[in-house]
Amino acid sequence: MKKIFFIGLVALCLTACQKQTVQPKVYGRFVPERKDDFAWENEYAAYRMYGPSLRPENPSNGVDLWLKASPELVVDSFYYREHVLGLPYHINYGKGLDCYKVGHTAGCGGLIVMASDTTYVGGAYDRWEILEQTPEKFVFKLEYDSLLVAGHVLKESITITAEAGTALNQADVVLTGEYDGELLVGGGIFMHDTIDHFEVYENIGMIFYEEDALSDKTAAKMNYDYNGSTSQGRIYITVQTPDATVTDIQDGNLVAVKPYTLGDTLTYYFGATWSEWKEQ
Questions:
Q1: Helix H or strand E segment including 7
Q2: How many C-beta atoms lie closer than 10 Å to residue 114's C-beta?
Q3: Which of 60, 67, 106, 168 could form a disulfide with 274 if both were Cys (CB 3.0 to 4.6 A apart)?
Q4: Among positive and negative, which fits the CA dihedral 77, 25, 100, 214?
């Protein structure tokens, strides 16, 4: 009788422990198998930034966007599908897709530096560090040794915080080095060939951009070849730089920037959603 009672008690404890297990809502990691990407996600979207192994392809310090169809975590499955199964993540197989082309731009919320009315973006990061990782919060830092601005080499440190329950990431940026002129710094959104809609909210330093999810012709063709359709909904991107003094279009980027002093910490927010996202 005691044995049966003990087994029952153990089973009850295991069941209770399983019920208390917290399912992660945010996630991120260094991705050496894909040229040193650093990728992360929360319920609403996934993102990545580019590392040293990609440097020969002239990447930027901009942010790439992956669209998600639901809150399900997809970063690892997308990389596995692409690099092990040979199924490109540029095609939507039902979970979402990578269709937002970054190139050498700010992408979806990357850092913009303006000097003498010219915009600058950097290259691949040099070092990464995970600062905090819980089921509800993911914090990491990327460091860049060579951010070229008007002939001057600056260093960039950006700490990004992704949390459950919000579509916006927080970016805390510190630039160091020497530059005598005025710098304007903040977040930016690269607008692709099809510019459908953008809005500027100067009073809160917020910019908003909307476009066809398949504005990139390569992604459009891949999805058409797979399912006969070039319709994958719409992308909505927001950047907010509190107290921004310039919210405008510069060199194809929609920017929200403000005066910056080297060595200070500047905070801005960025994030995106997809019209096809659905709560599970």
A1: helix 2-20
A2: 26
A3: 67
A4: positive
Residue 134 is encoded by which pair of tokens?
Answer: 């819980």
CA–CA distance, 251 with 258 (Å, rounded to integer):
17
7's tokens: 């087994």
SS percent in the chain: helix, strand, coil, step 5: 20, 45, 35
Note the CATH architecture for domain 25-274: Distorted Sandwich (2.70)
147-199 per-position pLDDT tens digit: 999 999 999 999 999 999 999 999 999 999 999 999 999 999 999 865 658 89
Residues 211-260: pLDDT tens digits? Answer: 999 989 999 999 999 989 888 999 999 999 999 998 888 888 899 999 99
Q: How far apart, in whole angstroms, are the C-alpha atoms of residue 149 and residue 123?
A: 12
Query: d(Cα 64, Cα 227) in Å, to the nearest integer?
Result: 24
Q: Cα-Cα-Cα-Cα dihedral of 259, 261, 267, 273, to 10°?
A: 50
- Could you give the CA distance from residue 213 to residue 218 in angstroms, rounded to a whole number? 12
